[in-house]
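Page 37, continued from 36.
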Protein backbone atom coordinates (compact mmCIF):
# COMPACT_ATOMS: atom_id res chain seq x y z
CA UNK A 1 0.00 0.00 0.00
CA UNK A 2 2.77 2.48 0.90
CA UNK A 3 5.35 1.21 -1.59
CA UNK A 4 6.14 3.89 -4.15
CA UNK A 5 4.05 6.54 -2.40
CA UNK A 6 5.67 9.92 -2.00
CA UNK A 7 5.32 10.98 1.61
CA UNK A 8 6.58 14.31 2.91
CA UNK A 9 7.36 14.30 6.59
CA UNK A 10 7.41 17.81 8.05
CA UNK A 11 9.25 18.09 11.35
CA UNK A 12 8.71 21.11 13.59
CA UNK A 13 10.60 22.23 16.68
CA UNK A 14 9.45 20.16 19.62
CA UNK A 15 11.36 17.69 21.76
CA UNK A 16 9.32 14.83 20.24
CA UNK A 17 11.24 15.51 16.99
CA UNK A 18 13.81 12.99 18.26
CA UNK A 19 11.22 10.23 17.69
CA UNK A 20 10.56 11.07 14.03
CA UNK A 21 13.51 9.07 12.57
CA UNK A 22 11.83 5.88 13.81
CA UNK A 23 8.69 6.69 11.79
CA UNK A 24 10.74 7.64 8.72
CA UNK A 25 12.65 4.38 8.98
CA UNK A 26 9.41 2.34 9.12
CA UNK A 27 8.07 4.13 6.04
CA UNK A 28 11.29 3.67 4.07
CA UNK A 29 11.35 -0.04 4.97
CA UNK A 30 7.99 -0.63 3.27
CA UNK A 31 9.15 1.15 0.12
CA UNK A 32 7.74 4.66 0.56
CA UNK A 33 9.64 7.54 -1.02
CA UNK A 34 10.08 9.79 2.01
CA UNK A 35 11.14 13.44 1.78
CA UNK A 36 11.79 15.30 4.99
CA UNK A 37 11.23 19.03 5.38
CA UNK A 38 12.36 20.48 8.70
CA UNK A 39 11.82 23.88 10.25
CA UNK A 40 14.87 25.72 11.54
CA UNK A 41 13.66 25.04 15.11
CA UNK A 42 13.36 21.29 14.40
CA UNK A 43 16.99 21.28 13.23
CA UNK A 44 17.98 22.36 16.75
CA UNK A 45 16.44 19.17 18.20
CA UNK A 46 17.62 16.69 15.58
CA UNK A 47 20.07 17.00 12.72
CA UNK A 48 19.09 17.03 9.06
CA UNK A 49 21.96 14.58 8.48
CA UNK A 50 20.21 11.94 10.63
CA UNK A 51 16.99 12.29 8.63
CA UNK A 52 18.85 12.41 5.32
CA UNK A 53 20.65 9.15 6.12
CA UNK A 54 17.45 7.37 7.19
CA UNK A 55 15.19 8.73 4.43
CA UNK A 56 17.90 8.34 1.75
CA UNK A 57 16.75 11.64 0.27
CA UNK A 58 18.05 15.20 0.69
CA UNK A 59 16.49 16.99 3.64
CA UNK A 60 15.15 20.48 3.03
CA UNK A 61 15.21 23.22 5.64
CA UNK A 62 15.92 26.45 3.84
CA UNK A 63 13.56 27.93 1.32
CA UNK A 64 16.26 29.98 -0.33
CA UNK A 65 19.06 27.50 -0.76
CA UNK A 66 20.23 27.24 -4.37
CA UNK A 67 19.03 23.93 -5.84
CA UNK A 68 21.24 21.63 -7.99
CA UNK A 69 18.82 21.76 -10.85
CA UNK A 70 16.20 24.25 -11.90
CA UNK A 71 13.04 23.69 -9.88
CA UNK A 72 11.11 25.68 -7.31
CA UNK A 73 11.61 23.42 -4.34
CA UNK A 74 8.39 24.08 -2.40
CA UNK A 75 6.31 23.65 -5.54
CA UNK A 76 8.04 20.49 -6.75
CA UNK A 77 7.79 18.87 -3.32
CA UNK A 78 4.18 19.96 -2.91
CA UNK A 79 3.23 18.58 -6.33
CA UNK A 80 4.99 15.28 -5.84
CA UNK A 81 3.42 14.38 -2.50
CA UNK A 82 0.75 11.73 -2.01
CA UNK A 83 0.52 12.78 1.63
CA UNK A 84 2.16 15.32 3.91
CA UNK A 85 2.46 14.45 7.61
CA UNK A 86 3.70 16.97 10.16
CA UNK A 87 5.29 14.98 13.00
CA UNK A 88 5.52 16.44 15.59
CA UNK A 89 3.31 19.44 14.88
CA UNK A 90 3.80 22.38 17.25
CA UNK A 91 1.12 24.92 18.17
CA UNK A 92 3.14 27.35 16.07
CA UNK A 93 2.84 25.47 12.75
CA UNK A 94 -0.85 24.77 13.33
CA UNK A 95 -1.43 28.45 14.14
CA UNK A 96 0.47 29.52 11.04
CA UNK A 97 -1.41 27.22 8.68
CA UNK A 98 -4.76 28.15 10.18
CA UNK A 99 -3.90 31.83 9.62
CA UNK A 100 -2.77 31.16 6.05
CA UNK A 101 0.86 32.09 6.72
CA UNK A 102 3.70 30.68 4.65
CA UNK A 103 6.98 32.12 5.90
CA UNK A 104 9.35 29.17 5.69
CA UNK A 105 9.77 26.09 3.53
CA UNK A 106 7.49 23.76 5.52
CA UNK A 107 4.55 26.19 5.88
CA UNK A 108 4.90 27.07 2.18
CA UNK A 109 4.82 23.39 1.11
CA UNK A 110 1.74 22.86 3.31
CA UNK A 111 0.00 25.80 1.64
CA UNK A 112 1.03 24.73 -1.85
CA UNK A 113 0.15 21.04 -1.74
CA UNK A 114 -3.10 19.49 -2.91
CA UNK A 115 -2.23 16.25 -1.11
CA UNK A 116 -3.94 15.44 2.20
CA UNK A 117 -2.18 17.05 5.16
CA UNK A 118 -2.00 15.21 8.46
CA UNK A 119 -0.89 16.83 11.74
CA UNK A 120 0.34 14.90 14.76
CA UNK A 121 0.49 17.51 17.53
CA UNK A 122 2.79 17.09 20.52
CA UNK A 123 3.21 19.81 23.14
CA UNK A 124 2.68 20.89 26.71
CA UNK A 125 -0.78 19.95 28.00
CA UNK A 126 -1.77 23.57 28.67
CA UNK A 127 -0.77 24.61 25.19
CA UNK A 128 -2.79 21.69 23.82
CA UNK A 129 -5.86 22.70 25.81
CA UNK A 130 -5.53 26.41 25.00
CA UNK A 131 -8.79 27.49 23.33
CA UNK A 132 -6.90 29.43 20.66
CA UNK A 133 -5.03 26.26 19.68
CA UNK A 134 -8.21 24.17 19.83
CA UNK A 135 -10.08 26.64 17.64
CA UNK A 136 -7.22 26.54 15.09
CA UNK A 137 -7.52 22.74 15.02
CA UNK A 138 -11.28 22.95 14.54
CA UNK A 139 -10.85 25.38 11.69
CA UNK A 140 -8.30 23.18 9.94
CA UNK A 141 -10.49 20.09 10.40
CA UNK A 142 -13.33 21.99 8.73
CA UNK A 143 -11.06 22.57 5.72
CA UNK A 144 -10.29 18.85 5.48
CA UNK A 145 -6.94 18.63 7.34
CA UNK A 146 -6.53 15.51 9.48
CA UNK A 147 -5.26 15.23 13.05
CA UNK A 148 -4.13 12.47 15.37
CA UNK A 149 -4.79 13.12 19.06
CA UNK A 150 -1.72 13.13 21.29
CA UNK A 151 -1.29 10.47 23.98
CA UNK A 152 -1.68 11.02 27.71
CA UNK A 153 1.36 10.66 29.91
CA UNK A 154 4.43 12.29 31.34
CA UNK A 155 5.54 15.21 29.18
CA UNK A 156 9.07 16.49 28.64
CA UNK A 157 8.12 19.75 30.37
CA UNK A 158 7.47 17.80 33.60
CA UNK A 159 3.67 17.91 33.44
CA UNK A 160 1.38 14.88 33.28
CA UNK A 161 -1.38 15.09 30.66
CA UNK A 162 -2.36 15.00 27.01
CA UNK A 163 0.44 16.08 24.70
CA UNK A 164 2.77 13.13 24.05
CA UNK A 165 3.56 12.09 20.51
CA UNK A 166 1.85 8.74 19.79
CA UNK A 167 4.10 5.74 19.06
CA UNK A 168 5.58 5.50 15.55
CA UNK A 169 3.48 2.38 14.80
CA UNK A 170 0.26 4.26 15.54
CA UNK A 171 1.29 7.16 13.30
CA UNK A 172 2.36 4.71 10.59
CA UNK A 173 -1.04 2.95 10.68
CA UNK A 174 -2.85 6.27 10.47
CA UNK A 175 -0.77 7.34 7.45
CA UNK A 176 -1.62 4.04 5.76
CA UNK A 177 -5.34 4.44 6.52
CA UNK A 178 -5.34 8.03 5.27
CA UNK A 179 -3.64 7.08 2.02
CA UNK A 180 -6.13 4.30 1.49
CA UNK A 181 -8.95 6.76 2.05
CA UNK A 182 -7.55 9.24 -0.47
CA UNK A 183 -8.41 6.96 -3.32
CA UNK A 184 -11.38 4.81 -2.34
CA UNK A 185 -13.81 7.02 -4.28
CA UNK A 186 -11.54 7.80 -7.24
CA UNK A 187 -13.59 7.68 -10.44
CA UNK A 188 -16.86 8.22 -8.53
CA UNK A 189 -19.04 11.32 -8.87
CA UNK A 190 -21.04 12.61 -5.90
CA UNK A 191 -23.94 15.00 -6.14
CA UNK A 192 -24.53 16.58 -2.73
CA UNK A 193 -27.16 19.11 -1.74
CA UNK A 194 -26.66 21.18 1.39
CA UNK A 195 -27.89 24.12 3.40
CA UNK A 196 -31.30 25.73 3.61
CA UNK A 197 -33.45 27.12 0.81
CA UNK A 198 -35.01 30.58 0.72
CA UNK A 199 -38.57 31.07 -0.44
CA UNK A 200 -39.09 34.74 -1.17
CA UNK A 201 -42.33 36.63 -0.45
CA UNK A 202 -41.02 39.83 -1.98
CA UNK A 203 -37.52 41.13 -2.84
CA UNK A 204 -36.49 41.42 0.82
CA UNK A 205 -38.42 38.80 2.81
CA UNK A 206 -38.12 35.06 2.71
CA UNK A 207 -39.04 31.85 4.49
CA UNK A 208 -36.07 29.66 5.48
CA UNK A 209 -34.74 27.39 8.25
CA UNK A 210 -31.71 27.13 10.52
CA UNK A 211 -29.61 24.76 8.41
CA UNK A 212 -25.99 25.93 8.29
CA UNK A 213 -24.82 23.45 5.65
CA UNK A 214 -22.12 22.00 7.95
CA UNK A 215 -23.13 18.35 7.51
CA UNK A 216 -23.37 18.54 3.71
CA UNK A 217 -20.14 20.49 3.38
CA UNK A 218 -18.39 17.95 5.63
CA UNK A 219 -19.54 15.13 3.34
CA UNK A 220 -18.47 17.11 0.26
CA UNK A 221 -14.99 17.74 1.72
CA UNK A 222 -14.60 14.15 2.87
CA UNK A 223 -15.70 12.69 -0.50
CA UNK A 224 -13.37 15.04 -2.38
CA UNK A 225 -10.54 14.11 -0.01
CA UNK A 226 -11.19 10.46 -0.83
CA UNK A 227 -10.74 11.03 -4.55
CA UNK A 228 -14.31 11.67 -5.76
CA UNK A 229 -15.52 14.33 -8.12
CA UNK A 230 -18.02 16.32 -6.06
CA UNK A 231 -20.83 18.56 -7.29
CA UNK A 232 -22.25 20.54 -4.37
CA UNK A 233 -25.60 22.24 -4.88
CA UNK A 234 -25.97 24.55 -1.93
CA UNK A 235 -28.42 27.01 -0.48
CA UNK A 236 -27.00 30.18 1.12
CA UNK A 237 -24.55 29.38 3.95
CA UNK A 238 -21.60 31.09 5.62
CA UNK A 239 -18.97 28.37 5.43
CA UNK A 240 -16.21 27.91 2.86
CA UNK A 241 -16.59 25.50 -0.05
CA UNK A 242 -14.09 22.63 0.45
CA UNK A 243 -11.15 22.69 -1.92
CA UNK A 244 -11.67 21.05 -5.29
CA UNK A 245 -15.47 20.81 -4.95
CA UNK A 246 -17.67 22.08 -7.83
CA UNK A 247 -20.08 24.52 -6.22
CA UNK A 248 -23.49 25.44 -7.62
CA UNK A 249 -25.14 28.11 -5.45
CA UNK A 250 -28.94 28.18 -5.38
CA UNK A 251 -31.62 30.01 -3.40
CA UNK A 252 -35.06 28.41 -3.62
CA UNK A 253 -36.26 24.80 -3.57
CA UNK A 254 -37.19 25.25 -7.24
CA UNK A 255 -33.61 26.44 -8.08
CA UNK A 256 -32.21 23.44 -6.21
CA UNK A 257 -34.52 21.10 -8.09
CA UNK A 258 -33.41 22.58 -11.45
CA UNK A 259 -29.71 22.22 -10.55
CA UNK A 260 -30.21 18.64 -9.35
CA UNK A 261 -32.15 17.69 -12.50
CA UNK A 262 -29.31 19.06 -14.59
CA UNK A 263 -26.62 17.01 -12.82
CA UNK A 264 -28.10 13.85 -11.29
CA UNK A 265 -27.36 11.69 -14.30
CA UNK A 266 -23.64 12.38 -13.93
CA UNK A 267 -23.69 11.13 -10.34
CA UNK A 268 -22.96 7.66 -8.95
CA UNK A 269 -23.87 8.63 -5.40
CA UNK A 270 -26.38 11.32 -4.43
CA UNK A 271 -26.50 12.65 -0.87
CA UNK A 272 -29.34 14.99 0.00
CA UNK A 273 -28.46 16.78 3.22
CA UNK A 274 -30.25 20.01 2.24
CA UNK A 275 -33.09 21.24 4.43
CA UNK A 276 -35.48 22.01 1.60
CA UNK A 277 -38.55 24.14 2.26
CA UNK A 278 -41.69 22.09 1.64
CA UNK A 279 -43.77 25.19 0.89
CA UNK A 280 -43.19 28.42 -0.95
CA UNK A 281 -45.38 31.57 -1.08
CA UNK A 282 -47.81 31.14 -3.95
CA UNK A 283 -47.29 34.76 -5.03
CA UNK A 284 -43.90 36.38 -5.10
CA UNK A 285 -44.20 40.15 -5.24
CA UNK A 286 -41.89 42.10 -7.52
CA UNK A 287 -41.88 45.12 -5.18
CA UNK A 288 -41.54 45.26 -1.40
CA UNK A 289 -44.81 44.48 0.34
CA UNK A 290 -46.36 47.38 2.27
CA UNK A 291 -48.04 46.75 5.61
CA UNK A 292 -51.82 47.07 5.92
CA UNK A 293 -53.99 47.72 8.98
CA UNK A 294 -55.02 44.12 9.85
CA UNK A 295 -53.52 40.61 9.93
CA UNK A 296 -51.75 39.14 6.97
CA UNK A 297 -52.68 35.80 5.47
CA UNK A 298 -50.36 34.13 3.03
CA UNK A 299 -51.03 31.19 0.76
CA UNK A 300 -48.24 28.68 0.29
CA UNK A 301 -47.85 26.04 -2.40
CA UNK A 302 -45.89 22.80 -2.25
CA UNK A 303 -42.34 22.81 -3.57
CA UNK A 304 -41.12 19.85 -5.62
CA UNK A 305 -39.90 16.93 -3.48
CA UNK A 306 -36.45 16.63 -5.02
CA UNK A 307 -35.55 13.41 -3.28
CA UNK A 308 -38.75 11.72 -4.33
CA UNK A 309 -38.07 12.76 -7.93
CA UNK A 310 -34.60 11.20 -7.66
CA UNK A 311 -36.02 8.01 -6.14
CA UNK A 312 -38.47 7.71 -9.03
CA UNK A 313 -35.95 8.50 -11.77
CA UNK A 314 -32.66 7.00 -10.59
CA UNK A 315 -31.02 4.11 -12.40
CA UNK A 316 -27.49 3.30 -11.25
CA UNK A 317 -27.28 5.93 -8.50
CA UNK A 318 -26.99 5.13 -4.82
CA UNK A 319 -29.39 7.49 -3.09
CA UNK A 320 -28.82 8.77 0.45
CA UNK A 321 -31.41 10.92 2.19
CA UNK A 322 -31.40 12.75 5.48
CA UNK A 323 -34.25 12.96 7.94
CA UNK A 324 -34.33 15.64 10.59
CA UNK A 325 -37.03 14.71 13.07
CA UNK A 326 -38.26 15.75 16.48
CA UNK A 327 -40.65 12.79 17.01
CA UNK A 328 -40.80 9.10 16.06
CA UNK A 329 -37.37 9.24 14.46
CA UNK A 330 -37.04 5.66 13.23
CA UNK A 331 -40.63 5.24 12.14
CA UNK A 332 -40.59 8.46 10.10
CA UNK A 333 -37.17 7.75 8.60
CA UNK A 334 -38.16 4.22 7.57
CA UNK A 335 -41.26 5.63 5.90
CA UNK A 336 -39.06 8.07 3.93
CA UNK A 337 -36.81 5.23 2.73
CA UNK A 338 -39.84 3.56 1.19
CA UNK A 339 -41.71 6.57 -0.18
CA UNK A 340 -38.58 8.11 -1.67
CA UNK A 341 -36.93 4.83 -2.80
CA UNK A 342 -33.66 5.43 -0.90
CA UNK A 343 -30.72 3.11 -0.29
CA UNK A 344 -29.78 4.70 3.02
CA UNK A 345 -31.23 7.36 5.27
CA UNK A 346 -29.29 9.28 7.88
CA UNK A 347 -31.72 10.12 10.64
CA UNK A 348 -31.06 12.71 13.30
CA UNK A 349 -33.21 13.61 16.23
CA UNK A 350 -32.81 17.37 16.18
CA UNK A 351 -34.33 17.74 19.64
CA UNK A 352 -31.18 16.18 21.23
CA UNK A 353 -28.37 18.51 22.36
CA UNK A 354 -25.36 18.10 20.03
CA UNK A 355 -27.44 17.07 17.01
CA UNK A 356 -28.96 18.80 14.02
CA UNK A 357 -28.78 22.37 12.74
CA UNK A 358 -25.84 24.63 13.49
CA UNK A 359 -23.93 22.32 15.85
CA UNK A 360 -20.43 21.03 15.10
CA UNK A 361 -21.43 17.55 16.20
CA UNK A 362 -24.23 15.23 15.22
CA UNK A 363 -25.92 12.12 16.63
CA UNK A 364 -27.28 10.00 13.83
CA UNK A 365 -28.75 6.63 13.04
CA UNK A 366 -27.94 5.03 9.70
CA UNK A 367 -31.00 3.17 8.49
CA UNK A 368 -30.58 0.85 5.53
CA UNK A 369 -33.08 -0.30 2.98
CA UNK A 370 -33.11 -3.81 4.43
CA UNK A 371 -34.14 -2.48 7.84
CA UNK A 372 -30.74 -2.59 9.54
CA UNK A 373 -30.19 0.31 11.94
CA UNK A 374 -26.79 1.49 13.05
CA UNK A 375 -26.54 4.03 15.87
CA UNK A 376 -23.44 6.26 15.76
CA UNK A 377 -22.15 8.01 18.89
CA UNK A 378 -22.14 11.78 19.16
CA UNK A 379 -19.20 12.89 17.00
CA UNK A 380 -17.91 15.79 14.89
CA UNK A 381 -19.80 16.23 11.62
CA UNK A 382 -16.55 15.55 9.71
CA UNK A 383 -16.30 12.20 11.50
CA UNK A 384 -19.97 11.42 10.74
CA UNK A 385 -19.19 12.25 7.10
CA UNK A 386 -16.34 9.73 7.01
CA UNK A 387 -18.45 7.04 8.70
CA UNK A 388 -21.16 7.48 6.06
CA UNK A 389 -18.52 7.28 3.32
CA UNK A 390 -16.96 4.18 4.93
CA UNK A 391 -20.34 2.45 4.76
CA UNK A 392 -20.87 3.57 1.16
CA UNK A 393 -17.35 2.44 0.20
CA UNK A 394 -18.02 -1.00 1.65
CA UNK A 395 -21.02 -1.43 -0.64
CA UNK A 396 -19.86 0.55 -3.60
CA UNK A 397 -16.75 0.07 -5.64
CA UNK A 398 -15.55 2.83 -7.92
CA UNK A 399 -16.11 0.65 -10.98
CA UNK A 400 -19.85 1.27 -10.79
CA UNK A 401 -22.72 1.67 -8.41
CA UNK A 402 -24.37 -1.30 -6.74
CA UNK A 403 -27.48 -1.01 -4.65
CA UNK A 404 -26.74 -1.05 -0.94
CA UNK A 405 -27.49 -4.09 1.16
N1 LIG B 1 -36.22 16.79 0.56
C1 LIG B 1 -36.22 17.12 -0.77
N2 LIG B 1 -37.14 17.98 -1.29
C2 LIG B 1 -38.10 18.52 -0.49
C3 LIG B 1 -38.12 18.18 0.88
C4 LIG B 1 -37.18 17.31 1.39
O1 LIG B 1 -35.35 16.62 -1.50
N3 LIG B 1 -38.97 19.37 -1.00
C5 LIG B 1 -35.23 15.83 1.08
C6 LIG B 1 -34.24 16.39 2.09
O2 LIG B 1 -33.10 16.91 1.45
C7 LIG B 1 -33.92 15.17 2.94
C8 LIG B 1 -35.18 14.34 2.87
O3 LIG B 1 -35.92 14.81 1.75
O4 LIG B 1 -32.90 14.40 2.40
C9 LIG B 1 -36.06 14.41 4.09
O5 LIG B 1 -36.37 15.74 4.36
P1 LIG B 1 -37.34 16.10 5.57
O6 LIG B 1 -37.53 17.59 5.60
O7 LIG B 1 -36.86 15.39 6.81
O8 LIG B 1 -38.67 15.34 5.15
P2 LIG B 1 -39.86 15.66 4.21
O9 LIG B 1 -39.81 14.69 3.07
O10 LIG B 1 -39.92 17.11 3.85
O11 LIG B 1 -41.07 15.22 5.12
P3 LIG B 1 -41.68 15.94 6.43
O12 LIG B 1 -41.36 17.42 6.29
O13 LIG B 1 -43.12 15.63 6.34
O14 LIG B 1 -40.99 15.29 7.60
Amino acid sequence: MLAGKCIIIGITGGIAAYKTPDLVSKLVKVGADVHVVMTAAAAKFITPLTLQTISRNPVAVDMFEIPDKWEVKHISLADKADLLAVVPATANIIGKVSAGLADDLLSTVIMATKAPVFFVPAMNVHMYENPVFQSNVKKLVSYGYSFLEPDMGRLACGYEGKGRLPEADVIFDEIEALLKKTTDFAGTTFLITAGPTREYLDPVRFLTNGSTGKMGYAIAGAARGRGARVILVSGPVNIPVPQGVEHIPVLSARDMFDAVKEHYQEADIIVKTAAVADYSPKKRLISKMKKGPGDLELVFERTPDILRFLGENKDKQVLVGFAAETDNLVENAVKKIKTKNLDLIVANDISQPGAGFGTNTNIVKLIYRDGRIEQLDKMAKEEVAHRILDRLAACFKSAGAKPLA
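The radius of gyration is 24 Å. Flag for discussion at group meeting. The pocket of cytidine-5'-triphosphate is lined by residues 253, 272, 274, 276, 278, 303, 305-307, 321-324, 336 (CB under 6 Å).
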